[in-house]
Design brief:
about 350 residues, globular, ArAA_b-elim_lyase/Thr_aldolase, alpha/beta, pyridoxal phosphate, three-stranded antiparallel β-sheet, seven-stranded mixed β-sheet
Length: about 350
């Protein structure tokens, strides 16, 4: 580790980092849920009362027609969802910025044995005309057939689809016979940003024509646990078997299910996501006018993507960890989380101001 830069050495560092919401701790409600579920023996593989309870809660969120399955983590959730939607000879269509394309070590390709067809995007969002242009591939035996459209809400760049934008995408996709998957690792942050209600969630999922939603829990404050929620029950029939085949069936599922129930209880998932988003806004307003800091866009959720002088990045990251994003333009990523405090934000902003002032 490098020594602390002189401009920062006398400043108190934040108690949290700005590296990732995955770096955050576990909310006490989730920890207590694990303890409460650890009282006696319970049937394994999802036959326990905690799993049945959280499945009822997901039906309350997404409708009686929905079916939910608990999995370990986000990559596994995506693989399971895509595996149940995809047929032989088909490919998955996604953004060139998608997590499944860039950050899952080829897990979908290896597990599915299928091609990912990436579409160029500047902001991580696919446009309807990009889907309609895929019609030239339909029926050509030398091309993998577009079978599944995968979108991310919120995107890897922190941008958001409106409900109308998702409806437009699903309309074009279904004209081509495609199914639609939503990677919702940060679905709580997206819901909070777009309106902050259960109706907001339903508007861009159930009422937008999606077939399956991956509901993120880990980034929202859990130790582990996500849900794959099938909005179209036809696609849930195979999921029971795919669940274990893709190594996502926890034997002691109650400990993941109990956490998810705690997250859904009294809309804790929205409360925590709203806080994380607010901390991102606080950091944005505290740093946007500092000389040397520029933002391509204001944060929509809990991620910021500022551009800094190259000489400021390493000493600042040594003092309080965050990651490079696009080194070619000196862009970094700052992520707030459910446990980021106002003090953390204010201390970090003071550090940004100090390091840039020392280099001016």
């Amino acid at each position: 580790m490098n020594p602390i830069h002189p401009a920062l050495i006398n400043l108190p560092a934040p108690n949290t980092t700005f590296a990732s919401d995955n770096s955050a701790g576990v909310h006490l409600a989730a920890l207590q849920a694990i303890i409460d579920a650890n009282t006696h023996h319970a049937l394994a593989y999802g036959s326990d009362s905690w799993t049945q309870d959280v499945q009822k809660r997901f039906k309350e969120l997404f409708g009686a027609q929905s079916e939910s399955f608990i999995v370990w983590g986000g990559t596994g959730a995506n693989v399971m969802a895509l595996a149940t939607l995809l047929q032989a000879g088909e490919c998955v269509v996604c953004s060139d910025k998608a997590h499944i394309a860039l950050d899952e070590t080829g897990a979908p390709e290896r597990a599915l044995g299928a091609k990912l067809l990436t579409l160029p995007t500047n902001d991580g969002k696919i446009r309807p005309e990009q889907i309609s242009q895929l019609s030239s591939l339909i029926g050509v035996q030398h091309h993998a057939q577009p079978g599944v459209l995968s979108i991310t809400q919120a995107t890897e760049l922190g941008t958001l689809y409106t409900a109308d934008e998702i409806r437009a995408l699903t309309f074009e996709a279904k004209k081509l016979g495609m199914r639609v998957h939503l990677d919702g690792a940060r679905i709580a942050n997206a819901t909070a940003a777009l309106g902050g209600t259960v109706d907001t969630l339903r508007d861009f999922t159930v009422h937008a024509g999606l077939d399956v939603v991956c509901f993120g829990g880990t980034k929202a404050g859990l130790a582990f646990g996500e849900a794959v929620v099938y909005l179209n029950p036809e696609h849930a029939r195979r999921a029971k078997y795919v669940h274990k085949q893709v190594n996502q069936l926890p034997s002691k599922m109650r400990f993941a299910a109990a956490q998810l129930s705690a997250l859904l209880d009294n809309q804790l998932w929205l409360t925590l996501a709203t806080h994380a988003n607010q901390m991102a806004q606080r950091l944005y307003h505290a740093t946007k006018d500092i000389s040397g800091v520029s933002y391509p866009h204001a944060p929509a959720i809990n991620g910021l993507f500022p551009i800094l002088p190259r000489a400021a990045i390493e000493p600042l990251a040594d003092w309080c960890k965050f990651w490079d994003w696009d080194e070619s333009i000196n862009q970094v990523r700052w992520m707030t989380a459910w446990d980021t405090t106002e003090q953390d934000v204010d201390r970090f902003a003071a550090g940004v101001r100090a390091i840039l002032a020392s280099q001016s």
